[in-house]
From TrEMBL:
<dbReference type="GO" id="GO:0030572">
    <property type="term" value="F:phosphatidyltransferase activity"/>
</dbReference>
<protein>
    <submittedName>
        <fullName>Phosphatidylserine/phosphatidylglycerophosphate/ cardiolipin synthase-like enzyme</fullName>
    </submittedName>
</protein>
<feature type="domain" description="PLD phosphodiesterase">
    <location>
        <begin position="469"/>
        <end position="496"/>
    </location>
</feature>
<dbReference type="InterPro" id="IPR001736">
    <property type="entry name" value="PLipase_D/transphosphatidylase"/>
</dbReference>
<dbReference type="InterPro" id="IPR025202">
    <property type="entry name" value="PLD-like_dom"/>
</dbReference>
<feature type="domain" description="PLD phosphodiesterase">
    <location>
        <begin position="176"/>
        <end position="203"/>
    </location>
</feature>
<dbReference type="Pfam" id="PF13091">
    <property type="entry name" value="PLDc_2"/>
</dbReference>
<dbReference type="GO" id="GO:0032049">
    <property type="term" value="P:cardiolipin biosynthetic process"/>
</dbReference>
Amino acid sequence: MEYLNAVEAELKSVSPGMEGKLWSRTAGNKFDTIGDDAASWILQVPDCWGWTASKGIPIGAEKPGIKKLLARLRHNLAQASTTVDITGFGPPDMIGSPAGPFPDGDFLDAMFDGIREAVGRREEGDPRLIVRFMTGVVGVDRTADPWVFRDALIKRFGTLARAIDLRVCSMTTRGVSSYNHTKFVIVDGQSVIHGGINWMTNYYIEEGPLFSRGFGDTAPVTDLDIALRGPAALSAGKFLDMLWEWARTHAGWVKSGWIKNRKQYPAWIAVEKPSPPAEGWSLYVEDEEDDSEPYAPGDLQVISVGSLGYGILDRDKDSTYERPYAEREDQAASYLNNETNLDSSFMTVNPDANAIRALVAHAKTTIVMSQQDINGFAGLPLMHALFDVRLLDVLARKMMDGVKVRIVISNPGSPDYSNISSVDVAYKSLYQRVRLRTTYDAEAHRLLRHHLQLAPLRVSNEQTWQGGYKYRLHSKVVCVDDTAFYVGSRNVYPDTTQDHGFIIQNAAAAALLNEHFLDKQWLYSKNAAICDWEW
């Protein structure tokens, strides 16, 4: 398990006091497959590879990946016996916005159907099913009202609502730049679905109303989640307990306060009794007196690692970590902001970026990335750093060592789903870091030409979706040596949100990830490559 060992060593160095809370390495996991389909733990959307203009793509929820994902949501949630955790991120719900702050449309329908089935099996006297919804918002705006969402669900459940302890939270930990960005579905602390997929129907399934279109029907976003079962789900739950504990101690609880004082608190929580409990809100505390065997359905080792952004915890008090030297860190500065590259304290409570770098640094032959971007959002109001200096430095060193690097990113343009104006920006960023290690400009370009594949997404031989809409990519996948990989909600570009992901070393699983997603992605995207060592 050399890749996991390398990542774990980095995490112990950066965040020793966060082990068991923000990150952990567990054994006894398994890929959560259904039936005989060995790849059913891979939940990709829309899964319309190779579509043709003459046939088009299936409409709405009939897209093969969407149909599979919705069925899996219903299936997993229907198994719930004690707890359900669902998290997401959402923009303000207003004209011009194709989504709202909470899960919607077919995604919410699937979640509701699964929970309803689980509750419908309960017998009188059984404890209520605890269901938590948490959404991250860009500042607590007036549309992210947790009571409206909770009241609508309670009404929809009807008499079954009596068997549900429903808790809904909207939160932001720092202005417009730090908030929950995870997309979890965790059931009983035993199964977990997670990755890049937002629960926004208008980006993946439907067009959306006029002036607020996400083009999810005719130009759906390409994205990916994975499904796991075992202690890794419990680890993810413990991470969420940290977010909920912060929200519990910082939230407004009174419905009328939302209308009058919505900016007074960084979080708002809607529950049955509008008062903060003193304790007992953590769902995943392990009972030390329980001598029963822990749930361990398989033999898969998984590293779970999250990030707290800004505003929850300033630093891991047990850490002595200081960022390693990197030449010309200022190359990544945006409007004088370069905090994610300079702030060592931030890194100790956001170790997932270090974990991904450690995974990449251990590559011997290949590195494959499927990402929205490798460049941060440098414009207003975020003004993030342009790139992760140390990640691009690792990529530069690996290419100098002969490792082949492949990166597929989203397409700048309409409908926009990218941080940059041109794919050339990504190439320039890589070139800048390679150039620091070479003698001549030509030498840097030659190194990239011989070791880099860089392309915007294509999902077929058609250059765009019907209507001329560009392909959009939102997956967060890093795979090295066809052996170990990261999947989660953390982008590889600089960001300050709360995120989480899983790092797994399993060659058979990596082969399936390649076969069903990464290889198909490159089969078509290579036709649009701006750099390809196979030329």
